[in-house]
Write a structure and sequence with these properties.
Pfam family, one: PUA_4
Largest sheet: 7 strands, parallel
Number of helices: 7
Strand content: 25-35%
Subcellular location: Cytoplasm
Shape: elongated
CATH superfamily of the largest domain: SPOUT methyltransferase, trefoil knot domain
Function: Specifically methylates the N3 position of the uracil ring of uridine 1498 (m3U1498) in 16S rRNA. Acts on the fully assembled 30S ribosomal subunit.
Helix content: 25-40%
CATH class of the largest domain: Alpha Beta
Bound molecules: S-adenosylmethionine
Order of helices and strands: EEHEEEEHEHEEHEHEHEH
CATH architecture of the largest domain: 3-Layer(aba) Sandwich
InterPro entries: Alpha/beta_knot_MTases, PUA-like_sf, RsmE, RsmE_MTase_dom, RsmE_PUA-like, tRNA_m1G_MTases_N
Family: Belongs to the RNA methyltransferase RsmE family.
Length: 240
């Protein structure tokens, strides 16, 4: 099991809770041992254990081992908020498939409307799910989980990226545009259960520097199926 932190590492830092116990009890490390720790920026460092007891370990960074590598560019998944635990499922699977960033997006037809009281709790849980999924599948990094973003803000933040938007009213297939997004950063944007509104599609096309709406076939897929299917195709085309 890898050790991930949800903060960028400083020269000296503390691990606590389950991570400290894991280092001590499961990995059986002690003072003076070196372990690899990956921080929230996706950078992995060799760290020396200065002290360790119970639920706390103090470590010193000795050397940088690797940096988050995205040889073919970053794949960002921007998906409409989903009901129940569907967004959690999506985070777990998208992490396994190697996305760089996941953005929960508040869209016009979202059934779920997160108010400020619920946002931070959800965010913490989503982040934990991404960490667990990254550990389980052996990734070197944890995808960045962004705070819930309104649809229009997505284009302010990522407007210069290329957007691929599965849209059930489109006839051009994802396969036809895949060769255009084999390299470089790309945002895959998926609608919620209720789909995109025509206004949102028009806004996306007018705001993004590069935008393709694509079909995923004749059948209407559930949002989470559409996200996973298109992500798998995209990752395959980009050599995973
Ligand atoms: N608007 C539809 C409705 O309310 O019946 C369905 C929305 S669908 C459940 C959720 C999202 O999955 C869509 O916004 C779209 O991004 C994607 N999607 C599902 N099936 C698709 C298809 N055949 N082609 C392209 N995108 C699809």
């Amino acid at each position: 099991r890898k050790i991930f932190t949800d903060f960028p590492l400083e020269a000296r830092f503390e691990l606590n809770g389950a991570d400290a116990r894991h280092v001590l009890v499961v990995l059986r490390h002690g003072v003076g041992d070196r372990i690899a720790v990956t921080d929230s920026t996706g950078t992995t460092y060799a760290c020396r254990i200065d002290s360790i007891a119970g639920h706390s370990a103090v470590l010193t960074v000795e050397e940088r081992l690797s940096c988050r590598t995205q040889e073919t560019g970053k794949v960002v998944l921007a998906a409409g908020l989903l009901k129940n635990d569907k967004f959690e499922w999506l985070i777990q699977k998208a992490t396994e498939l190697g996305v760089h960033t996941i953005i929960p997006v508040q869209m016009e037809h979202c059934v779920v409307k997160l108010n400020d009281n619920h946002r931070s709790g959800k965010f913490e849980r989503w982040r934990r799910i991404a960490v667990e999924a990254a550990k389980q599948c052996g990734r070197d990094d944890v995808p960045i989980i962004r705070e819930v973003m309104p649809f229009t803000e997505l284009f302010q933040a990522y407007g210069t990226s290329r957007f691929v938007i599965p849209y059930e009213r489109e006839t051009t297939s994802l396969a036809e545009v895949c060769h255009e997004v084999q390299q470089g950063d790309v945002v895959l944007c998926i609608g919620p259960e209720g789909g995109f509104s025509p206004k949102e599609i028009a806004y996306a096309v007018s705001q993004a520097a590069w935008c393709r709406t694509v079909s995923l076939g004749k059948r209407i897929l559930r949002a989470e199926t559409a996200a996973l299917a298109s992500l798998s195709i995209l990752m395959y085309e980009r050599g995973f």
